[in-house]
Structure formats: C-alpha cells, structure tokens
C-alpha cells in the first residue's frame, strides 16, 4: 500500500492505495464520488473523464498513485458554489444533451476541457474533441448543441428525425 494525498474538488484527501489501483477506482470506491463512471474497462468510452491538474484524463488509464499531489476535479465538483448547475450542466439539461445519463459526466468534463482551451469551438471542433467519448443514446446532436450553447454561440439545428 502507498499513501497518496491529492486535492479532489478542492478538498484535500489522504488515503492508502494499492499499487495497481486505478484513479477511477479510488474516486468511486474510496471517496464515494460515483459520478465518474466505468463504462468499458478499455479506455474507449470516456465515461470516466476527470481533470487532473487541469488536463482531461480518462481515470481508468491512470493509477491513483500517479495523482499524488495533484488537483483532481470530478463531475461532483462542477456545480456552482451555491449548488446550482454550472453553464455546461445547465446547457445539457436545456438542450436535452443526455438520455440515460451514463455518459453525461464524462461528456460534461470533456466539454469543460474543450471550452477552457477553446471558448468558441465550431461544431466540427466539438465533434472532433468528443471522439474519445461514446454515447449510445443521443446520436450526439443535442450534446453538440448543448456545448455550443454553453459557449454562448447559436446552436445548430437538429437534423430531422
């Protein structure tokens, strides 16, 4: 066992971890931050996306010990200080960017990363950025619209169903 200390959503935590314990396991099992999902066990789906030192990371690809000393942000830390939804979360709700909700935390974390680096992305840039995130329900149209809205841009029309 190795002791790690990190700031998770602004809170300092110290725990013992196994050498092979993944960051996603640490967040879900030790800290009970279950918004970070495990969807594929192969790093393909993006449901486990978090920010580590401001960078987007698939938490299933990183050992918890590698995050020792890091700033980690999860979906649970994305709400506004008063507990209300942040602009990205609100846009996902307003533009129906979710259905079953399983991929939503990873999508929101990916969107936050994109908008931090590119505050006014094009539809093509959004779609390219989300290539590491799989949604099995929505077809991505409303997710793209939500991210466009969160960036303060006019949203593209939804294709006829």
UniProtKB/TrEMBL annotation:
This is Molybdenum hydroxylase family protein, small subunit. SUPFAM superfamilies: 2Fe-2S ferredoxin-like, CO dehydrogenase ISP C-domain like. InterPro entries: 2Fe-2S-bd (IPR002888), 2Fe-2S-bd_dom_sf (IPR036884), 2Fe-2S_ferredoxin-like_sf (IPR036010), 2Fe-2S_ferredoxin-type (IPR001041), Beta-grasp_dom_sf (IPR012675), Diverse_Oxidoreductases (IPR051452). Pfam families: Fer2, Fer2_2. The keyword Hydrolase does not apply. Residues 2-78 form the 2Fe-2S ferredoxin-type domain. Keywords: 2Fe-2S, Iron, Iron-sulfur, Metal-binding, Oxidoreductase. PROSITE patterns: 2FE2S_FER_2. One of its GO terms (molecular function) is 2 iron, 2 sulfur cluster binding.
């Amino acid at each position: 066992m190795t002791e790690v200390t990190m700031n998770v959503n602004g809170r300092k935590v110290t725990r013992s971890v196994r050498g092979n314990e993944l960051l996603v396991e640490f967040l879900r099992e030790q800290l009970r931050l279950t918004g970070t999902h495990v969807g594929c066990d192969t790093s393909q789906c993006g449901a486990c996306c978090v920010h580590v030192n401001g960078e987007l990371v698939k938490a299933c690809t990183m050992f918890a010990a590698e995050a020792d000393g890091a700033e980690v942000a999860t979906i649970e830390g994305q709400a506004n200080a008063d507990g209300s939804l942040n602009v990205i979360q609100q846009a996902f709700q307003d533009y129906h960017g979710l259905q079953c909700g399983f991929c939503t935390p990873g999508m929101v974390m990916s969107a936050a990363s994109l908008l931090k680096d590119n505050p006014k992305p094009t539809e093509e840039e959004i779609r390219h950025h989300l290539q590491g995130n799989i949604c099995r329900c929505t077809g991505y149209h409303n997710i793209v619209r939500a991210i466009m809205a969160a960036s303060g841009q006019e949203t593209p029309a939804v294709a006829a169903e």
